[in-house]
Automatic annotation (TrEMBL):
Disulfide bonds: 817-856
Record bears the keyword Hydrolase: yes
PANTHER family per record: ASPARTIC-TYPE ENDOPEPTIDASE (PTHR47966:SF65), BETA-SITE APP-CLEAVING ENZYME, ISOFORM A-RELATED (PTHR47966)
Region listing for Disordered, in residue ranges: 951-984
SUPFAM superfamilies in alphabetical order: Acid proteases, Zn2/Cys6 DNA-binding domain
Entry superkingdom: Eukaryota
Subcellular location: Cell membrane
Any GO MF annotation of the entry: DNA binding
Family named by the database record: Belongs to the peptidase A1 family.
This protein's name: Probable aspartic-type endopeptidase opsB
Boundaries of every Peptidase A1 domain copy: 569-892
Species of provenance: Aspergillus awamori (Black koji mold)
PROSITE patterns associated with the record: ASP_PROTEASE, PEPTIDASE_A1, ZN2_CY6_FUNGAL_1, ZN2_CY6_FUNGAL_2
Keyword field: Aspartyl protease, Disulfide bond, DNA-binding, Glycoprotein, GPI-anchor, Hydrolase, Lipoprotein, Membrane, Metal-binding, Nucleus, Protease, Signal, Transcription, Transcription regulation
Length: 1000
C-alpha cells in the first residue's frame, strides 16, 4: 500500500533546479535526489527585492557551495562517490567563475608558481590527462588542489559579483576538511593547503594562516617529507621529477611558515618545522628544464652556479633568505638580557647585508627574479633591528641605536646607488632598469613605514621611544595596501605577457613597455586657463613635454636614443588654499587624479619631483581627509601609495571646492597624473566600492559644464601645445564629419574608453593594402601612451608595407627618415569612420650610435597580449570627443591649420555632442583590452560540456545609435588574446601575496 505524501516543499530543491530536473518536492528529500544519492536542500522563496535573473544566479551559486560542504551526500551516500561528486562540483564552480581548467593552469603556473613552485607542471597536467574523463574522475585530493588553484587565481569579482573570493575561500576550507577526513594526508592535500595558507596570509589573516601551517607541517611529517637522510647533495643531479616536487614542497612549508610567523603578535612562538642542515639541497624553480642544485651552505659567489651553467634559481635564493630569517626569529625569542644576543645580531646583520648586496648587485635580466629573496632578506633585516629601535632609552645604548638605523638604510642605499650607476654606464646583462626601480620602491616603501615617514635616513635618537604608527603590529588596511603595491611592482613582473595589467577597466594604460611616463621638463608657468562666458565649457591648454627616453626591453640597461623625442601631454592646475601649482600628465586611460608631495622618499632624492610641482597638505587650510587610500600600479611600472583627500582645485577661473584626489606619499614617478576616465574606474571605486566624482564628473557637479564629456586636440608632432575642452567641442579643430561610435563595454559595464577597430590600411605611392587580421578589435584611445600598440600579426604587415625594420632589442621598428616626407599614410577604420595618419605624424626622428644612418622610429609597435592602444601617434591626427555620459566616442580628422575657435557646448541627454552623427551599424562588441572570449569549455563528469559564457552584470548604460553587436574573436597569438584580469584588490588574494615583499 502506498503511503500518501502529506508534506511537500513550497519550491523545488536546489539540486533539481540546478540540473533542470522535475522535482516532486518530497520532504525531507525529493525522489530524484534520493535515487541518486545526491544532497537535497530546499530554500525558502526569495525576498521581493531579490527576484530576477541576478537572484536566481545567486541561489544557484549558493547551492553549489552548499553541496561542496559534504562529499558524502545524504546519509545513504558512500565514500566511493566522493571523487565523482567532488570533480563535478569543482568543474561547476570553475564554470561559474567564467574560467576553464586550462586558464586556471595558465594563470597559476605563469604567476603564483613563480613565487611558490610547489606543484610540478608536468605532474599536474599528467594527472589531469589521466583522469579527465566522465568514467574516471581524478582523486578527491587532486580536485581539492584544482579548486585551491582557482582560489589563488580568481580575478576580479566585478566580472562575477556573486562568486566572491570570500565565498570560494569558505568553501575551500570546508572541502579541505572533508577531504582530510577521507584521505588524511597526501601530496595533493599538502599542496592545496599551502595555497590556502598563502591566501590567508596575503589577505591580512596571519593568525588563520599560522593555524593552517601547523596542520600542514604535521601533514608533511605524515607523508615523509621531513626526512633529511633521504636527501643527499650528490644525488640532486639525478633526482626524479616526483622527488623534486616533494623537495620543493617541503621547502614551501618551511618558507611560508616563517614568513607567516613574522606577522604573529607573539614573537615567542616557534615554527612547527625545523630548518634543514647544510646537507639538505636547496629547491629549484620547478621549470620544465630542471636546474642543478646548490647546498644550503653555498652563499658565496664562487659556489653559486653561473648563469652560463643554468638559469638562476629564485626559489633557491628565497630558501637561503628564509634560513637567515629563521635565525632572526630565533634571536628575537631570546631575552634582551642574554649576553650573546648582541653578538648574534651583529653576525646576522653582516650576513643579511652580504646577501642583499649579492642579490641586488647580481640582479638578473629576468624581471622580478630576485624580488622575493630580497623581500625576505629585507624583512629579516628589519625584524633583526626592530627590537633595538623600539627599546626604551634606558635599555639600549646610543651606539647600538645608530648601528641599527644605519643597517636598516642599507638596502635602499645599495639600490639607489645601483640606479645611479645604471644612468652613468651600462652593466651588460646584469641589471634591468625596470627591475631596479621596482627594487627601489620595494625597499623604500617597506622600510619607510616601519616608523615615521622621514625615518629612513634621518631617524633621530629621541624618536626611539615614539609609538609606532602601526602600533607595533600591522594595521591591516594599510598592510594590504603596502603588500599590493609591492606585489604588483615586483613579483608580477615574472611574466610580462601575463603580469602587465590587461583588464581594460583596471589597467592604467601607459603603454605596457612602450614609453614610460617617468621623466620630463620643468613646470612651465603662465598658462592661461579660462572658462568661456558663453557656452558652459572649461578650456584647459595642453603642453607637450619631453619624457623619459626610449629603453631596451630585453636588456637590463636603458639605452638612450639621444635625439628621439619621447613626449607626454601635461596640464597645469592649482590645489589648496593658498594655491599650489602642479603639472600633471593627462591620461584618458585612468581615472584618478593624484599628485606628488615633497616629503616622500622618492621625491626627496635630489628634489626629483620639484620641477613638476608638489602639493603640501599641511600648507592648505581647506584640505580634508577622506579615510581611504590610493595604491595603484600602472602598466609601465609606475606605483603610488597615499591617502585620498579633498581640497580646492582651480582651473583658470573655474574652482571645485571639494575635489577628491590622491597624495603619493610613496611613488616611483616624478609627476602626478590627471586621469579623466570613467569614475567607476578609480582606485577607490574598484577596491572600496565607493564611487566618487573624479575630474570630469566634479566639473559637472560644480555647474561648470553640463555633461561629463570633453574633447581633445593634440595638434601635430611639431606643435608644443594642444587643447582639452571640458563640456564642449571646437569645430575649428577638425575637418570632415564628426562621427560617433559606441564605447566597448566589458561584461556589460563601461570601464575603459575603447572602441572597435575594424580595418587598417596602408597607402604608398605604388600600392594600397588593407588588413583585417585580428579585427574587429577593442582599442583604447589613451593620451597616456606615446606609441600605438596593436597585435603583432597586424603590425608586421604594416612594417612590410612601409618597408620598416623591426628591432627586437628595442621592440621597435625603424624606418628611413626620408619616408616622413613621402605621401604615404596609414588609415584606421572604425565601422566606416576613418582617421588617416600621415608619415610625418607616425614617424619620429631618432638617432643613436649603432642604429642605421638616416633612420627614424615608427610610432607603431606590437602590443602586449590583450592591451591594444591608440596612443599619441594616432591621437595627434584625430579630434576626439569622449562622451562619458552616453558611453560614446566621436572622431574626426584633425585640422592642423585651424582658424578662429568655434566652440559649441555639449548638452545633456542622448546625441548631446553638437555636429556629431552616429556611424550606421557600428560594431559595439569586440575582444581585446581585457575582454575574454566566451565559450571556454570546462570538462564535467556527465559527458556534457559546460560552457563558460560571459554574463553581463549590471546595467549597460546608454550606447550609441543601434549597430551590430556581433562578437569578434581575435586570432592573434600575441596581441589580441585577452589575458587574466588584474584588479589589484582581487588579484592580491589570487597571488596570495607573492613574496609579500614586506619590510615592515
Amino acid at each position: 500500500m502506498t503511503v500518501p505524501v502529506t508534506e511537500r516543499a513550497l519550491q523545488v530543491c536546489l539540486t533539481c533546479k540546478l540540473r533542470k530536473k522535475a522535482c516532486d518536492k518530497t520532504l525531507p528529500t525529493c525522489g530524484y535526489c534520493t535515487k541518486r544519492n545526491l544532497p537535497c536542500r530546499y530554500q525558502g522563496p526569495p525576498a521581493a527585492e531579490e527576484t530576477g535573473t541576478e537572484a536566481t544566479t545567486q541561489i544557484e551559486i549558493n547551492a553549489i557551495l552548499l553541496q561542496m560542504v559534504s562529499l558524502f551526500g545524504p546519509p545513504s551516500g558512500n565514500v566511493s562517490t566522493a571523487p565523482r561528486r567532488t570533480w563535478y562540483q569543482v568543474c561547476r564552480i570553475i564554470q561559474l567563475a567564467d574560467l576553464s581548467l586550462q586558464e586556471i593552469s595558465r594563470r597559476y603556473f605563469s604567476n603564483f608558481h613563480k613565487w611558490l613552485p610547489v606543484v610540478s607542471y608536468e605532474i599536474f597536467q599528467g594527472t589531469l590527462a589521466q583522469y579527465n574523463s566522465p568514467s574516471c574522475p581524478p582523486p578527491v585530493d587532486y580536485s581539492v588542489l584544482v579548486l585551491a588553484m582557482c582560489l589563488v587565481t580568481l580575478q576580479p569579482s566585478r566580472l562575477n559579483t556573486h562568486l566572491t573570493p570570500h565565498s570560494l575561500y569558505a568553501t575551500m576550507k570546508m572541502l579541505f576538511a572533508e577531504a582530510q577526513a577521507i584521505i588524511c594526508a597526501s601530496t595533493y592535500l599538502l599542496q592545496a593547503g599551502l595555497l590556502i595558507a598563502a591566501y590567508e596570509y596575503a589577505n591580512g589573516r596571519p593568525e588563520a594562516a599560522n593555524i593552517t601551517m601547523g596542520t600542514l607541517a604535521r601533514t608533511a611529517f605524515a607523508i615523509g617529507l621531513a626526512n633529511p637522510s633521504s636527501w643527499q647533495t650528490n644525488e640532486a643531479s639525478n633526482i626524479s621529477l616526483e622527488r623534486l616536487e616533494r623537495l620543493n614542497l617541503w621547502w614551501g612549508v618551511i618558507i611560508l611558515e616563517r614568513l607567516i610567523l613574522c606577522e604573529i603578535k607573539d614573537k615567542t612562538q616557534r615554527p612547527t618545522t625545523e630548518c634543514p642542515s647544510s646537507k639538505f639541497p636547496l629547491p629549484s624553480d620547478l621549470q620544465p628544464i630542471q636546474a642543478s642544485y646548490q647546498s644550503v651552505g653555498s652563499s658565496s659567489h664562487e659556489n653559486l652556479p653561473s648563469n652560463q651553467d643554468r638559469k638562476p634559481c629564485a626559489f633557491g635564493h628565497q630558501a637561503r633568505a628564509v634560513l637567515l630569517l629563521d635565525r632572526v626569529l630565533a634571536v628575537r625569542r631570546l631575552p634582551r638580557t642574554d649576553s650573546g644576543r648582541t653578538v648574534e645580531i651583529r653576525q646576522l646583520d653582516e650576513q643579511l647585508q652580504n646577501f642583499l648586496s649579492e642579490r641586488i648587485n647580481t640582479a638578473t635580466a629576468e624581471i622580478g627574479h630576485d624580488c622575493s629573496p630580497i623581500a625576505s632578506a629585507v624583512r629579516a633585516l628589519c625584524l633583526l633591528h626592530q627590537d633595538v629601535i623600539e627599546s626604551p632609552s634606558n635599555t639600549v645604548d646610543l651606539q647600538s641605536l645608530q648601528y641599527s638605523q644605519a643597517a636598516l638604510g642599507m638596502p635602499s642605499k645599495v639600490t639607489i646607488g645601483r640606479l645611479y650607476c645604471v644612468e652613468v654606464r651600462p652593466f651588460g646583462s646584469s641589471v634591468r632598469c625596470e627591475w631596479l626601480h621596482a627594487a627601489f620602491a620595494l625597499t623604500n616603501l617597506g622600510l619607510s613605514h616601519l616608523v615615521d615617514d622621514d625615518w629612513l635616513y634621518q631617524c633621530k635618537v629621541q624618536k626611539r621611544n615614539a609609538a609606532l604608527p602601526l602600533g607595533g603590529q600591522f594595521n591591516l588596511p594599510r598592510l594590504r595596501h603596502i603588500r599590493l603595491g609591492l606585489v604588483l611592482l615586483c613579483n608580477l613582473r615574472y611574466n610580462e605577457s601575463v603580469n602587465r595589467k590587461t583588464d581594460a577597466r583596471s589597467v592604467k594604460m601607459k603603454g605596457a613597455a612602450l614609453i614610460p611616463l617617468a621623466a620630463g621638463i620643468p613646470f612651465a608657468h603662465g598658462l592661461s586657463l579660462h572658462k568661456r562666458d558663453g557656452p558652459a565649457v572649461v578650456r584647459m591648454p595642453i603642453e607637450r613635454r619631453s619624457a623619459q627616453s626610449l629603453q631596451k626591453r630585453d636588456s637590463t640597461v636603458g639605452v638612450t636614443l639621444q635625439n628621439w623625442d619621447a613626449t607626454y601631454y601635461a596640464v597645469n592646475l592649482t590645489l589648496g588654499t593658498p594655491a599650489q601649482k602642479v603639472s600633471l600628465a593627462l591620461d584618458t586611460g585612468s581615472s584618478d587624479l593624484w599628485v606628488n608631495t615633497g616629503n616622500s622618499t622618492y621625491c626627496s632624492i635630489d628634489n626629483l619631483c620639484t620641477p613638476y610641482g608638489l602639493y603640501n597638505a599641511s600648507e592648505s587650510s581647506t584640505v580634508k581627509t577622506v579615510g581611504t587610500h590610493l595604491n595603484d600600479t600602472y602598466a609601465d611600472g609606475t606605483n603610488l601609495y597615499g591617502p585620498y583627500v579633498t581640497d580646492k582645485l582651480t582651473i583658470g577661473n573655474t574652482t571645485i571646492d571639494n575635489m577628491q584626489f590622491g597624495i603619493a606619499e610613496s611613488t616611483t614617478s616624478k609627476r602626478g597624473i590627471a586621469g579623466v576616465g570613467y569614475k567607476i574606474s578609480t582606485y577607490q571605486a574598484e577596491h572600496d566600492d565607493k564611487v566618487y566624482a573624479n575630474l570630469p564628473q566634479a566639473l559637472v557637479d560644480s555647474g561648470a559644464i553640463k555633461s561629463a564629456a570633453y574633447s581633445i586636440w593634440l595638434d601635430s608632432l611639431e606643435a608644443s601645445t594642444g587643447s582639452l575642452l571640458f563640456g564642449g567641442v571646437n569645430t575649428a579643430k577638425y575637418k570632415g564629419d564628426l562621427q560617433t561610435l559606441p564605447i566597448i563595454p566589458v561584461y556589460g559595464k563601461y570601464y575603459s574608453l575603447a572602441i572597435a577597430l575594424t580595418e587598417l590600411s596602408v597607402a604608398t605611392d605604388s600600392n594600397s593594402s588593407s588588413f583585417t587580421d585580428s579585427l574587429p578589435l577593442s582599442v583604447s584611445l589613451d593620451t597616456g601612451t606615446t606609441m600605438t600598440a596593436l597585435p603583432s600579426d597586424l603590425v608586421n604587415k604594416v612594417y612590410d608595407a612601409l618597408n620598416a625594420t623591426y628591432d627586437k632589442t628595442y621592440d621597435m621598428a625603424y624606418i628611413d627618415c626620408d619616408t616622413r616626407e613621402a605621401d604615404y599614410n596609414v588609415t584606421y577604420s572604425f565601422s566606416g569612420a576613418t582617421i588617416t595618419v600621415s608619415m610625418s605624424e607616425l614617424i619620429i626622428p631618432a638617432t643613436e650610435p649603432g642604429w642605421p644612418d638616416n633612420t627614424c622610429v615608427l610610432g607603431l609597435v606590437p602590443s602586449q597580449p590583450g592591451v591594444n592602444l591608440l596612443g599619441d601617434t594616432f591621437l595627434r591626427s584625430a579630434y576626439v570627443v569622449y562622451d562619458l555620459e552616453n558611453n560614446e566616442i566621436s572622431l574626426a580628422n584633425t585640422n592642423f591649420n585651424p582658424g578662429d575657435d568655434d566652440i559649441l557646448e555639449i548638452g545633456t541627454g542622448t546625441s548631446a555632442v553638437p555636429g556629431a552623427t552616429p556611424v550606421p551599424s557600428a560594431v559595439s562588441s569586440a575582444t581585446g583590452n581585457g575582454l575574454i572570449s566566451s565559450g571556454t569549455a570546462v570538462p564535467t563528469l556527465s559527458g556534457v560540456t559546460i560552457t563558460a559564457t560571459a554574463t553581463a552584470t549590471g546595467s549597460t548604460g546608454t550606447g550609441s545609435s543601434g549597430g551590430s553587436s556581433a562578437e569578434a574573436t581575435s586570432t592573434s597569438s600575441e596581441g589580441a588574446a585577452a589575458q587574466a584580469t588584474s584588479n589589484p584588490m582581487n588579484l592580491l588574494p589570487g597571488l596570495a601575496g607573492i613574496g609579500l615583499l614586506l619590510a615592515l
